């Protein structure tokens, strides 16, 4: 349906409605771009986003969803669909597949996605396992800082950490700036032991990487790993086979060499824990941002959603989302590596 035809659509008058017929709900507010001129130019150059065609492209994706996935329970708002177009550089087919994968992932891993709201993750947030740094990098990327050493496995399962990461990504991707610039991940593996690493086996690795690569509309521009012990070689041996080459090339292992980290992330934006000058690492500000979004997450993730089996069967499974049985051989293959590296 064209943009012009949308503009010609009018609501029926009260006189045309029967006594028992209610008027349709009002249309959601139209899309208003919040990007700066600089980011509009960046989106045009890097994502093939043309402002003059933007709503036409959104309408094209909306029409494809209605035609090819009529039973897919999804938002069709301009702003929501635009996330998927930007993540796939306005390739309609790839954007549609990403949208289907997004919902398939949410429905295929209930331990992570059921009842997903900040108040259900207060223990994870209080632990300091993850936060978003207050300053962006020189490219405008928000920096997601993950510290596995803050997780105590006896307190809660590893899936709670994954829920907290996904919650954070959902909050970040609401920003059009993040949709265009992407994010950077800073992972501090200081103090990660063999027993803790064993919780992150091939099954979990494949699921998480499958979501990040093929089931979520976000651009990961770099992953910086610091303070990694020898055991990380084993962890990376689990992860690497599931990574696309483009993503694998964006992993940077710095060890304890913070000068190496600073060539990518300036000291001025880093907390002093990582040799920076931006003060001490504070997780409370980001926790407050998430907790203030409680109602949004309840509305999005805590309502019953009809599962359309036919749609999920048609969805091409994201890379890394295969069955448990397919992970068994990988697990046996890397166990020896984990022990030899420790």
Report the C-alpha radius of gyration, rounded. Answer: 22 Å
The CATH architecture category of the largest domain equals: 3-Layer(aba) Sandwich
Structural class, from secondary structure content?
alpha/beta
pLDDT averaged over residues: 84
Order of helices and strands: HHHHHHHEEHHEHHEHHEHHHHH
- The tally of structural domains comes to 2
Q: Look up the CATH topology of the largest domain.
A: Phosphatidylinositol Transfer Protein Sec14p
Describe the structure.
The chain is of the alpha/beta class. The chain has 2 domains: 37-108, Helicase, Ruva Protein, domain 3 (Orthogonal Bundle), CATH 1.10.8.20; 114-302, 3-Layer(aba) Sandwich (Phosphatidylinositol Transfer Protein Sec14p), CATH 3.40.525. The protein has 18 helices and 5 strands. The protein has a 5-stranded mixed β-sheet.
Write the layout of secondary structure elements.
Blueprint: H1 3-8, H2 37-47, H3 54-68, H4 78-87, H5 92-108, H6 110-113, H7 122-127, E1 130-132, E2 142-146, H8 158-172, H9 176-181, E3 183-188, H10 194-197, H11 202-214, E4 220-226, H12 231-239, H13 245-248, E5 251-255, H14 258-262, H15 284-291, H16 294-301, H17 309-314, H18 324-341
Parallel strand pairs: 2-3, 3-4, 4-5
Antiparallel strand pairs: 1-2
Helix pairs in contact: 3-4, 3-5, 4-5, 12-18
Summarize the structure.
InterPro entries: CRAL-TRIO_dom (IPR001251), CRAL-TRIO_dom_sf (IPR036865), CRAL/TRIO_N_dom (IPR011074), CRAL/TRIO_N_dom_sf (IPR036273). The chain is α/β, with parallel strands linked by helices. The protein is built from 18 helices and 5 strands.
């Amino acid at each position: 349906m064209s943009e012009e035809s949308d503009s010609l659509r009018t609501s029926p008058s009260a006189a045309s409605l029967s006594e028992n017929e209610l008027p349709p709900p009002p249309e959601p507010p139209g899309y208003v771009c919040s990007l700066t001129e600089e980011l509009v130019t960046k989106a045009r150059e890097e994502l093939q986003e043309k402002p003059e065609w933007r709503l036409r492209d959104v309408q094209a994706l909306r029409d494809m969803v209605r035609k090819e996935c009529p039973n897919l329970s999804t938002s069709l708002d301009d702003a929501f669909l635009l996330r998927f177009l930007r993540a796939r550089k306005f390739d309609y087919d790839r954007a549609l597949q990403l949208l289907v994968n997004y919902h398939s992932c949410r429905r295929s891993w209930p331990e992570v996605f059921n009842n997903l709201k900040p108040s259900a993750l207060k223990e994870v947030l209080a632990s300091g396992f993850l936060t978003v740094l207050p300053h962006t990098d020189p490219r405008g990327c928000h920096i997601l800082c993950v510290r596995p050493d803050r997780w105590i496995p006896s307190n809660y399962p590893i899936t709670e950490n994954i829920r907290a990461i996904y919650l954070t990504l959902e909050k970040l991707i609401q920003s059009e700036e993040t949709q265009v610039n992407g994010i950077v991940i800073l992972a501090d593996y200081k103090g990660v032991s063999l027993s803790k690493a064993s919780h992150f086996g091939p099954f979990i690795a494949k699921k998480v990487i499958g979501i990040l690569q093929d089931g979520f509309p976000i651009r990961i521009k770099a992953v910086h790993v610091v303070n990694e012990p020898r055991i990380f070689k084993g962890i990376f041996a689990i992860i690497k086979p599931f990574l696309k080459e483009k993503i694998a090339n964006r992993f940077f292992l710095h060890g304890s060499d913070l000068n190496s980290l600073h060539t990518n992330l300036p000291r001025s934006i880093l907390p002093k824990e990582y040799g920076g000058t931006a003060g001490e690492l504070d997780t409370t500000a980001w926790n407050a941002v998430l907790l203030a979004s409680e109602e949004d997450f309840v509305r999005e993730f805590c309502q019953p959603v009809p599962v359309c089996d036919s749609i999920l069967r048609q969805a091409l499974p994201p890379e890394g989302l295969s069955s448990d049985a397919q992970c068994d051989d990988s697990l046996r293959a890397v166990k020896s590596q984990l022990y030899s590296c420790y």
